[in-house]
Specification:
The complex is a heterodimer. Chain A is an alpha/beta fold. The radius of gyration of chain A is 24 Å and the shape is globular. Chain A starts with a strand and ends in a 42-residue tail after the last helix. Chain A contains 12 helices and 10 strands. Chain A has helices spanning 16-25, 31-36, 117-124, 156-166, 171-185, 200-212, 230-245, 257-263, 281-292, 294-312, 317-333, 343-353, and strands spanning 3-6, 49-65, 86-102, 106-110, 132-137, 142-145, 218-222, 249-253, 266-271, 274-280. Mean pLDDT of chain A is 69; it is low at 1-44 and 335-395. In chain A, helix 6 (200-212) runs parallel beside helix 7 (230-245). By secondary structure, chain B is mainly α. Chain B has 13 helices and 1 strand. Chain B has helices at residues 17-23, 35-44, 46-62, 69-89, 99-123, 128-131, 140-166, 178-202, 204-220, 227-230, 236-244, 246-258, 268-288, and one strand at 27-28. In chain B, helix 4 crosses helix 7, helix 5 (99-123) packs parallel to helix 8 (178-202) and helix 7 crosses helix 8 (178-202). The two termini of chain B are 34 Å apart. Residues 7-14 of chain B have low confidence and may be disordered. The chains are: A alpha/beta, B mainly alpha. The interface between A and B is large, with 73 and 44 residues.
Chain lengths: 395, 297
């Protein structure tokens, strides 16, 4: 059988211009990854390992159509006999990942689409066998993905029971958690409607609530937070923190780097199925942003510096809060046109400032004095901006 | 790669990771669960199996305005259609006393297995989402099909009893024989459902083939004609070979219990037990041996 190797990350060369320009302008950044390369267990030697990946390779085999050679005539006689254009393709999605996760770790997996993040999670969950190498786990990991549809035609309530039992609870245990799940998902009367009627965000909330209702030894969340609204996102982040404290290990796949900074203590950056970097969450995310989102990176650096300046200037947290309140009063008293942020601007500010305050995940106050410059057009991590960062350079 | 992309990190520790795993008692996820603990876990998931089966049942009729009334209505319509075609149009009733009862017992018994097989073809394919997300013994899925269909069969047997009484058969102690037959046929169905679930999960071509196989099987099982009458003029081995068919066995035993005028060879009982055990064991092993493959999608 013909096997066409498919390279999932063959387009990774595209952003090299932006990377090089960013690296040239920010020489200090290049040293950060080196610092982060210390083995993570050197910091916490005491915690017991919960997941060990030993040189794991995962290979998908899928039926696909043979890629047409450019300029070749279109395939004829497609209706006759066996479909000769069908070949089994091998997708080598994870290529030799080794890592040790320990109790209490919350690990963010970051990387571009097709870098093998979700595949690695599924291999750890025992849902995909490793082609080479081994995955060792303490207990059975639970994987919560956005695709984990329960029964679309059954009402949310029934799905709560079904989902709980699928995770291994008895009927009584699932019923005992019902109220908590209903409250957490906060779907109102929709809870008694078939899930077919839910928006994708609502369904994701219910699925997250079901999975988060029990403390798992190993909980893996695949992009589940991306769909909720801001308020739900905060609540689920809080819940992930709680689950972490219950001595479990949490894996989180997310394209939202702010979420990784906030909820994870460690991050693993995957590229083409290989580990590029494994270390403290902020350091890894910094390095990742340097490479794929330099504008956002510069913005956050600036904010962090401003914060440090504030701290050096000797103002306590309480004093700053008082100053902020006074400012807000002034604004209320004389609402100048333009100072009132539109909802969209407010959302942009929130997402821009959220990552810079890892210490207060619940904090939602408006940003402090140095109002962030308008956000650059939402930079998709898969299509890095072509313009090198301009005005936000450090002086 | 460019300058900013750091070199791939070495393994987090120089020590052998497998040894570290062994030291802390971590288990490899790729090792297949031993059959004993698999069965134990399956038993601990019995609530889930029942919930899954009942859930699917209510989905099946949930969209109709008659709702659960279809549970009763569909076997009755089935009986009417078969009686019209085979009893009135095709006259396959020659040599059979009380043909309506004969025909309807055959149809209802065969339909149970047929519905299970059709459910088995979708047991894995229609639940890929939950299978690829949550780890549980995959045998839950074919077993949920059984739970779903056995509920239907209880209703069908009740209707069957009423129809048979209406055709003039007396109610006798022999009717209690229906219970062991139903148990044996259910065990047989479990094994069959698991085999079908595995084969259709591995190859979509098999799923296309199943309906034709089921039609052929229905005609060979003596659902609408009497095998005894049909083979009377043929060599005796033809009859014996036809009675080896497990479905013929369950149908004939059912008729023997419910119809006083109908005699069946007594060796059909041990044969029925044998088929139930063989299919249950073989079906389970066939399904279990591909356990890891179902989540591959």
């Amino acid at each position: 059988m013909a096997e066409d190797p498919v390279d999932p990350g063959s387009d990774a060369q595209e952003p090299s211009d932006a990377q090089e320009s960013a690296a040239a302008q920010e020489p200090s950044g290049a040293q950060e990854p080196a610092a982060a390369q210390e083995p993570p267990e050197a910091q916490e030697p005491a915690a017991a390992p919960t997941v060990i990946c030993d040189d794991v390779h995962v290979v998908y085999r899928v039926m696909g159509r043979r890629r047409a050679k450019s300029g070749a005539p279109p395939p004829r006689r497609r209706l006759r006999g066996r479909n000769k254009n069908l070949v089994t393709k091998k997708v080598h999605a994870v290529r030799g990942v080794s890592m040790v996760a320990r109790e209490g770790d919350a690990i963010g997996l970051i990387g571009r689409n097709g870098s093998g993040k979700s595949t690695l999670l599924r291999a750890i969950a025992g849902l995909l066998p490793a082609e080479e190498g081994h995955v060792f786990t303490a207990g059975r990991p639970t994987l919560l993905g956005v695709n984990a549809a329960l029964m679309r035609d059954l009402p949310g309530e029934d799905n709560i029971l079904l989902g709980g039992m699928a995770m291994g609870l008895t009927r009584e245990e699932a019923q005992a958690r019902r109220d908590w799940i209903v409250e957490f998902a906060d779907l109102g009367e929709f809870i008694s409607l078939p899930m077919r009627a839910y928006s994708s965000g609502m369904a994701a909330r219910l699925r997250f609530a079901i999975a988060a209702s029990t403390s798992h030894e190993i909980l893996m969340i695949d992009e589940a937070l991306a769909t909720g609204d801001a308020e739900f996102r905060r609540r689920s982040e809080k819940r992930i923190m709680e689950l972490r404290q219950e001595a479990g290990t949490v894996f989180l796949v997310s394209h939202s780097l702010g979420v990784v900074r906030m909820t994870c203590n460690r991050a693993i950056w995957l590229e083409k199925g290989k580990v590029v970097m494994d270390g403290e969450a902020n350091e890894v995310v910094d390095a990742y942003e340097m490479m794929y989102d330099p504008e956002q990176d510069a913005l956050e650096r600036k904010q962090r510096r401003a914060k440090r300046r504030r701290q050096r200037s000797g103002m306590t947290k309480a004093e700053r809060r008082a100053a902020r309140a006074a400012k807000a009063e002034r604004q209320e008293a004389a609402p100048a046109p333009g100072t009132d942020p539109t909802p969209a601007e407010a959302a942009a500010k929130e997402s821009a400032t959220a990552p810079s305050t890892p210490a207060e995940p619940g904090a939602t106050e408006p940003p402090a004095e140095p109002t962030p410059p308008p956000m650059p057009p939402a930079a998709d991590s898969d299509s890095p901006p072509t313009d090198p960062p301009g005005p936000e350079r450090p002086s | 790669m460019s300058a900013t992309l750091p070199e791939q990190v070495p393994a987090p520790d120089d020590r052998d990771l497998s040894a570290l795993a062994a030291q802390w008692g971590l288990k490899s996820t790729s090792a297949r669960q031993p059959i004993g603990s698999y069965l134990r876990e399956l038993w601990s998931r019995r609530d889930f199996i029942v919930a899954m089966g009942s859930g699917r049942k209510s989905v099946q009729y949930g969209e109709t305005s008659l709702g659960r009334f279809w549970l009763v209505l569909s076997p009755i319509l089935n009986a009417i259609v078969y009686y019209f075609i085979f009893g009135i149009l095709l006259q396959t009733s020659k040599g059979v006393e009380n043909f309506p009862a004969f025909l309807i017992i055959g149809v209802f018994t065969f339909t149970y297995t047929q519905r299970v097989v059709m459910g088995g073809t979708k047991a894995i394919a229609n639940n890929r989402a939950i299978i690829s997300a949550i780890h549980f013994p995959r045998a839950v899925m074919p077993l949920a099909v059984i739970v779903q269909e056995i509920q239907q069969q209880f209703v069908s047997i009740g209707i069957l009893g009423v129809i048979v009484l209406l055709t003039g058969e007396p109610l006798t102690w022999l009717w209690l024989g229906v219970i062991p037959i139903l148990v044996l046929q259910t065990l047989f169905n479990v094994g069959l459902c698991m085999m079908v679930a595995r084969w259709t999960a591995a190859s979509r071509d098999v799923a296309q083939l199943i309906p034709f196989l089921m039609h052929t099987w229905r005609y060979l099982s003596g659902v609408m004609f009497s095998i005894a009458v049909f083979t009377a003029d043929l060599a005796p081995w033809v009859e014996r070979v036809l009675y080896l068919n497990p479905m013929t066995g369950y149908i004939e035993l059912m008729r023997g219990c419910l119809m006083t005028s109908y005699d069946v060879p007594s060796y059909l009982w041990p044969l029925a037990v044998m088929w139930a055990v063989v299919f249950l064991v073989v079906g389970f092993v066939v399904f279990y041996r591909a356990e890891e493959s179902y989540s591959r999608g």
